[in-house]
Amino acid sequence: MGGRRFVSDTSTIVSAFLFENGKPGRALDLAEEQGHLFVSAETA
Q1: Residues 8, 28: contact at Cβ < 8 Å?
Q2: The pTM is what?
Q3: Number of CB atoms found within 10 A of residue 16's CB
Q4: Any idea what the Cα angle at residue 24 is, between residues 18 and 26, rounded to 5°?
Q5: Number of other residues whose CB lies within 10 A of the CB of residue 15
Q6: CA 3 – CA 15 distance, rounded (Å)
Q7: Would you list the DSSP string of 7-19?
Q8: In the predicted model, is pLDDT for residue 1 greater than 60?
Q9: Nearest to 9 by CA among 27, 34, 33, 35
Q10: Burial 1-11 (b: 16+ CB within 10 A, else e)
Q11: Other beta carbons less than 10 A from residue 27's beta carbon
């Protein structure tokens, strides 16, 4: 698995879905563009 790996906490993921154009949403978009975003089974 190549590329950068990113891990985020649950509150950032929830905020990203609620405020797509806010910092959390942009951060997750950037993480997905540049690498792999990992979430735990409890979060998913």
Answers
A1: yes
A2: 0.71
A3: 19
A4: 105
A5: 18
A6: 25
A7: E--HHHHHHHHH-
A8: no
A9: 27
A10: eeeeeeebeee
A11: 16
